[in-house]
Amino acid sequence: MIVTLTANPAIDRNVTVDRLVFEDRAYILSTRKAAGGRGINASCVIRAYGAETLAIAPCGGKSGKLLEEFLSSCGFPCELVRVRNEIRTNMTIADRNGLAVKLNEKGPELSASEVGRLEKAVRNHLRSASWLMLCGSLPPGVPPDFYARLVHAASKQGVKTLLDADGDEFDAALDARPTVVTPNQQEAERLLNRALLTRNHFQEAAERIRGMGAGSVVLSLGARGALAALEDGSIWEAVPPRVEALCPIGAGDALAAAYVWSIRRNPDPADALRWGVAAGTASARLPGVSFASLDQTREVYDRVTTRRVG
User: Is 0.70 surpassed by the pTM of this model?
Assistant: First the structure.
């Protein structure tokens, strides 16, 4: 089983408009609400690909009840840890040309006891897990070493870990040596405090992050695909075909999920990188925050090119 943790889930309100421009009106074409959060998104992709997954997340307030309602029909088991405060609501506004704006709340303040119960929920499922995916931001009240503790706990149980996070929690967890980390370009730039502009920059960044403790690094580069610095020291690049991207938000979640799904089936990280880029690209072609099916992903996979660059 692939266990995902979304420490800061949300109700995602996804709005599609005719066009996004500054200082002018836009007309809403459609709007919908859905369960949101990187780990929940990852579980949706994993389930769509036919693998077993369990999603863990805190849940509180009226938004929490709506989250529970949405997840009841998601097709995979969830363990929701009750918390006192209201979980957040995030908004994504996207137009038909692929432009998107994402507005996120910080999330609810969690007490020390609530943090402890969330950590216990994850630890209780490690014995039945092959992978643990630690996804997204930490809400207020959760210490920055929270992910690091869970990486250590998973390692003791022989469970591999994927870390998809940002900020202090990402930096702290690197010391615990997660199996793979999946920063995007902006997250890597914040971590390394430098701009990444060229292929050489991307390669240097991936190698540097791996040197900070990660077993492997998959650096997500949006429409340019991804570059991976692997545990054996090799560097691989996966380049997607050119497609019309309608909404790239969530593509990184699809990439991380497909990478883990693939490497469980076939322990070839270069092929997992190819599947990850295919999943992100196929999902970006869909309107709103949506995730491609396995058939849609496979069609793109056949057109993704991979090569060893170092």
Answer: yes
